[in-house]
Amino acid sequence: MRVRIGLVILALAIPTICRAQADPAGLAGTWTGAWGRGADTLAVTMRLAESDAGWTGSFDSERLRVEGIPFTEIALEPPQVTIRLVGDQTTTVFTGRVEGDSLTGMLDEEGRAGWFAFARSGTPEPDLREEDVRFDNGGVTLAGTLILPPGAGPHPAVVFLHGSGAEARWASRYLARFARAGIAALIWDKRGVGESTGWWPEADLEDMAGDGAAAVALLRSRPEIDRVGIHGHSQGGTLAPLTAVRSGADFVIASAASGLPFADVESYSVGNFVGISSLPPEEAALARAYVEALVEVAYRGAPMAEAEAAAERARGHDWYFDLPGPDDPYWLFSRRIADYDPLEWWEQVEVPVLLVYGSADERVPVEASRAAIVSAIEAAGKTTVDVRVFEGADHTFRVRRPGDEWPRTVSGYPEALLDWLAGL
C-alpha cells in the first residue's frame, strides 16, 4: 500500500513524452467519449497533440470536476496507442487503436479493467481569454495562467491557492471556470512545480502566503480587474486567513479548511486512510500508535527511531504503509508548518468569508474545524462568515452512488460558491 501523507486533493505525476512514430494527424485533436468500468460510464474529453518533442495530452471530466489534467505518457505506433496516467495512488494504462476518427480500447487501473471509446470532434471556439503571466515573490518567480471573462470589465477576480504537495496550475483549472460567470481567475504553478522556480518543501507558510499576496498584487495592477479575493482548498484553505491578511484580499473562500493544528489534522487524516475506526480493538490500537509515532516525528521533532520502531511493530498488517524515505520532502515541510495556528489569523480577517465543507471529509475534522473558525471570527467581530456543509461529500466534495466506479460531484457545488460571490 502506498500513502500520500498530508492534505491532498489531486496529485498526478508531471508529464513525460514519447516520440511519435507516425503521422501526427492520426491522433492529434479533440476527442469526446467515455471511459467505462462495470456498469458505470464516465464522460470524458481528451485533447492530444504532437510537437517536436513528442506527444502530450490532457483530459476533462465534468463529473469528476477536473479540466486540463495532463496524461503522464503517450505513445503511438499506428494503429496502436498507449496512454499512461499516473495518479497519487494508482496508475491507469489505456491501450487501444486509432482508426480514422475513432479511438477505442481497454483501460487497466492496477487490475481493474474497463474500456474507452472516443470519436474525434471539432475544437470549439474558446469563450474565455487566457494569458500566461509571471510574478515574483522575493527571489522566486511564479508562473501561471490568468483566465478572463468576455468583455472589457472591470471584473472581480479569484486567486487560487495551492493544496499540499507538488500542485500545478491545472489542479484549479475546473473551478477557474468561474470566468464563465464573469469572475476572472488566476491559477499558477506552486514553487518548484511546472514553470515556477524555487522549491516548496524548503518554503514556510509565510513564503506561501507571500506567493499568494504577490498573485493578488498582480491582479490589482490590471485595469480590467476590480475586487480580488482568494480561494484555498485543504492546506490552501487552512492558509487562506494568513494570505488574506498579508494580501489585503477583498473576500475569502476557504474550502475544507482546518481550524486545528496541522499535527492534529494529520493524525485524523492518516488514521482515516488506514481505517482505524473499522479495525478490531487490538489492531486499531497498533495502527493508532503507528500513526501517532509518525506525527510525533514529522510535526513535533521526536527522534526518527521512534517512528521506525513503531513501523517494525506494524509491518505485515494489511493496513500498514511504509514510512516516507529519509529524503522525502514530507519530513522537512511538516516541521516548517507545525507551529501554524490558523485561528490567530482568522481573528485578523476583516473581509467576508465563506467556509465550505463536505460532511464526510476524511482529511479534515469538519465540525471541530468549522466551530473553531466561526468562533474565532465572531469573537473578533471584524467581519461576517457564512458556512456551507454538503451532506455526504468527501474532502473533494465528491460522493459515490451504488454502482459508481468513479465518484461524482455533490449536488449544488460549485454553484454555491458562485451564488455567494454574486451576493457580495
Task: Produce a short descriptive summary.
This protein has helices at 205-220, 235-247, 262-274, 281-300, 304-314, 329-337, 342-346, 366-380, 415-422, and strands at 29-37, 40-50, 55-61, 66-70, 73-77, 80-86, 91-99, 102-109, 112-121, 129-137, 140-148, 155-160, 184-188, 225-233, 252-255, 353-358, 385-390, 398-399, 408-409. It is built from nine helices and 19 strands.
Fold and architecture overview:
There is one protein chain. With 424 residues, the protein is of the alpha+beta class. Helices cover 26% and strands 30% of the residues. A hairpin with a 2-residue loop joins strand 1 and strand 2. It starts with 28 loop residues before the first strand and ends with a helix. The relative contact order is 0.12.
Structural class: alpha+beta
Q: Cα-atom Rg, whole angstroms? A: 22 Å
Describe the sheet with the most strands: 9 strands, antiparallel
Query: Assembly type of the shown chains?
Result: single chain
Helix proportion: 25-40%
What portion of residues belong to β-strands?
Answer: 25-35%
Overall 3D shape: globular
